[in-house]
Amino acid sequence: MGIKKVGAKPQTLVEKIFFLDFIKGLKTTIKHLWKKVITVDFPYEVVTPPPRFRGVHGLRTVDGTENPEFDSWVKRLKIKPPEPGETRCIACKFCQAACPVPELFDIQSEKLDVPEGHPHYGLKVMTVFNMDLSKCTFCGLCTQACPTDCIIMTDIYDLSSYTRRSWVLDKDMLTQIANDFVARRGKEKFDEKSQWREDQKLWPEYDRTREKLWDFNMPKLGLNYHDQTA
Amino acid sequence: MSWISVEKAKKLEERFGYPKVSQDKSGVVSVEVPKDKFIEFLKFLKEDKEYDFRMFLDLTIIDHGEKEDPRFQGVVILFSPTYQHRIIVKTWALDETLPTLTNLWKGAKWAEREAWDMFGIKFEGHENLVRMLLWETYPYHPLRKDFPLEGIKDTYLPSLNETLRGDSLEGLFNYDRMHTAIPTMEDLEITQKKRMPVKTSQIVLNWGPLHPGTHGTIWFLFDLDGEYVKQCDIIIGQLHRGVEKLGENVNWQQFIPYTDRMDYIAAINENHAYVLAAEKLLGIEIPEKAKWIRTMMAELSRINSHLLWLGTYALDLGALTMFLYTFREREKIMDIIEGISGARFTINYFRIGGVFADLPYGALDAIEHLIKDLPERINDYETLLTRNRIWLSRNKDVCIITEEDVYEYGLTGAVARGSGVPYDVRKIDKYDAYGEVEFDIPVGETGDSYDRYLVRMEEMRQSIRIIEQCVAKLRRMSKNDPYFFQTPDEKKLKVTIDGRGMKLPAGEVYASSDNPRGELGFYIYNKKDGLKAHRMRIRSGAFYNLQVFTKAIIGRPIADAITLLSTIDPVVGETDR
Ligand code: SF4
Ligand code: SF4
Asked: What are the respective helix, strand and coil percentages of chain B, to the nearest 5?
């Protein structure tokens, strides 16, 4: 078992008399004096969050990139098969079950009011989906529980508002957030089956602001494992 | 194995007759003794050379439920520095009392107060059995099973609703106007008086609870004679959120985000300790890749935490520049962690069974890049501080913590190592990949603040060493290697990333990890297979380390309080839980 002793050495006389400790310290300070500023001038400059960033939630809509089990889930829960552009949510409440703060969700579904014989007779749609983000821990467990990859987390982090009420997002708001996000950055995060891409980047390389906080000396991103291909 | 062998424990049975030895599947060895023999037995364990359980780790209570008789059980966890293993000693708290352990280990003082506070168990012979986390006039004991999770709502507190809309809010936002009690000024005054019943000198100085120099919301009481401290007590609990109670009321994976919020500076390490305990209870072995990723992330987090410690420590002692330098490096680590896990602070990356996602493209490169620079930076910090005469005179021989204190108070982490005790759970338990990486344990000589400083500086270098080895190992792995436990038979054992429907078996387990702030241990007791824990005890390293503050500061000038607090480096989220 490796044990390494650390201990104090007393200051030598030379060090004491010639103030070597101070001079050495000053040298370090002066060395840093000429470096460029590394702070980001928020809000005029912003760093783009990485693809995996866990920000405000969104509800994805049907756009042809659903996972292979999507249809069977819709059937199993007796949900009206959604048209393109309609929400993917099947009101299964798995997200709520996985959440550490389940009371922040309010999810409801209703039977469609159609006469017998109509193809949608007896089927349901999700009608209410409220999330109170003031209670959310942004842990991401809900997104991992969702069987249809409906609930996702986006890169939005500025949640400040004047009233607590505005932290409750309803289904329209959530859908809009997701649509925006998928259009903006969906390619970075999801593959064509809505799963996380295998080659998700640690952070977006097009973002030049990040360079600042890395002292203008950014690492070059590359492959992790020997058998990976770009 | 870090537990006493059953054979050796059985010898105790032969010798005394009354102890009952049992071993759980998770490896934990516990001994049950009758209450009237409790102290005698512990004294033997502590003093006998063959057993030598000198070090106190934890004391807690299990509430078996209102219907059970006897209902409360005391649990003591001890460690033997000579043989490098632990033991659990249990006894039934008949009539809701237990004899005090404070005559054997001074460190039991706070633990017993906490047990009184949370369970209402009286410790006979305790010098001042007041509450630990709650205020003195609070009438309930919240960790009892009959206390509801949301508390007893007996106080009118309308302020959560928006006043403009009054009661007209509906749905998620119409908060109940009755809430659990909060302390009033009188309550706090009573609490303060009870904590320090006898004043020895003229002035009692209050420091905190909101002093920017403290590490969060801690409230110090210093009984001062001139500049020198004669007596000291600490009132904590301002950040108490009942994490243990929450742990008994949420599912297994769902508890991880709550552990994030304990020691928020090193959230990864908190997650780590918890998932280790849960995995041991489940009896699963996680995939190799997950082990190495977790080890690497835990060490990154340690550097992150130590950088924050160094910055604020130097800031507290008046060296402002340091703070800016360390935060620059810290930012890069946060950036990497954010890229890997999706969050900077409340990370929630580890899961029971591995990690929730593989490393993203470029993660290893960024980490390599970081650790290439880091040693040079640490040298920079050292040139600024280590030989500086002001730094030396503020730290050298200040507030010495002896080896004896380490065992008495159950000190762990850099505080123990600064006092020359090479106690490191990473070496004892060899959890995850720590058995396979090479690193040294830095230890100090005198146990003064300066030694604790040097130990942490060296720990950062050792962490870099570990990360280097992890990166090299991960590079050789395949992208197809699993990063999460694969269930062989879903019907028998269900381990899911999101935790829905995951059950952990009956049994008990104590597992810990070596956090930047000391040993964080989770003691989980599970009556039957369950979605939730029956008892979730969190042994907080920061809590026990902070306790020694009240001793080490005695006789020192008040200015040393800042140095001592900084070198103990508690985080209130963890001390209060
Ligand atoms: S991020 Fe976590 S806390 Fe927030 S809604 Fe999802 S599961 Fe719940
Ligand atoms: S888990 Fe997904 S599909 Fe199910 S209710 Fe939640 S968001 Fe809708």
From this structure: 45, 15, 40
**Residue A147 counted as domain residue:** yes
Q: Is A150 annotated as a binding residue?
A: no
User: Residues of B with CB below 8 A from A196's CB?
Assistant: 357
Among residues B89, B84, B75, the alpha carbon closest in space to that of B2 is found at B84
Q: Is A139 annotated as a binding residue?
A: yes
- Cis check for the bond before A43: say yes or no (omega within 30 of 0): yes
Q: Is A99 annotated as a binding residue?
A: yes
Confidence of residue A8 (pLDDT cuts 50, 70, 90): low
Contact B53, B8 (CB under 8 A): no
Distance from CA of B478 to the nearest CA of A (A): 6
Q: Give me the DSSP letters along B142-164.
A: TTSTTS-TT----EE-GGGS-TT
In tens, the pLDDT along B477-501 reads 888 888 888 877 777 777 777 778 7
Mean pLDDT of B395-404: 85
Across the interface, of A6, A27, A221, the residue whose CB is closest to B455 is A6
Written as six digits, the tokens of B128 are 């001042």
Q: Which domain holds residue A105?
A: 56-188
Do the Cβ atoms of A224 and B364 come within 8 Å?
A: yes
Q: Would you say the pTM of this structure is higher than 0.95?
A: no
Chain A positions touching B363 (Cβ under 8 A) are 202, 224
CB contact under 8 Å between A6 and B458, yes or no, is yes
pLDDT, position B565: 86
Element housing B66 (H / E): none
Q: Which of B346, B374, B326, B364 shows the shortest CA–CA distance to B266?
A: B346
Does A81 reside within a domain?
yes
State CA B368 to chain mean position distance: 30
What percent of chain B clears pLDDT 70, i.e. is strictly above it?
96
* Spatial distance between the Cα atoms of A27 and B384, rounded to a whole number of angstroms: 9
Q: Measured between CB atoms, which of B255, B422, B475 is closest to A225?
A: B475
C-alpha–C-alpha distance, residues A82 and A132, integer Å = 25
Q: What topology does CATH give the domain B243-576?
A: Cytochrome-c3 Hydrogenase; chain B (1.10.645)
Nearest CA to ligand 2 atom 6: A95
Measured distance CA(B544)–CA(B518) in Å, rounded: 9
Q: Which helix (H) or strand (E) holds B15?
A: helix B6-16
Which of B328, B363, B369 is the closest to A224 by Cβ? B363
Q: Taking 70 as the threshold, does the pLDDT of residue B172 lie above it?
A: no
Residue B292: what pLDDT? 92
Interface pTM, i.e. ipTM: 0.86
Whether residues A11 and B348 touch (CB distance < 8 A) is answered with: no
CB under 8 Å to B485, separation ≥6 — which residues?
B284, B286, B287, B290, B353, B354, B495
Residue range B6-124 in CATH 3.30.460.80: yes
Q: Are strands B72-80 and B535-539 parallel, antiparallel or unpaired?
A: unpaired
Residue ranges matching CATH 1.10.645.10 in chain B:
243-576
Distance in Å, CA A150 to ligand 2 centroid: 6
Pairing outcome for strands A57-59 and A151-153: antiparallel
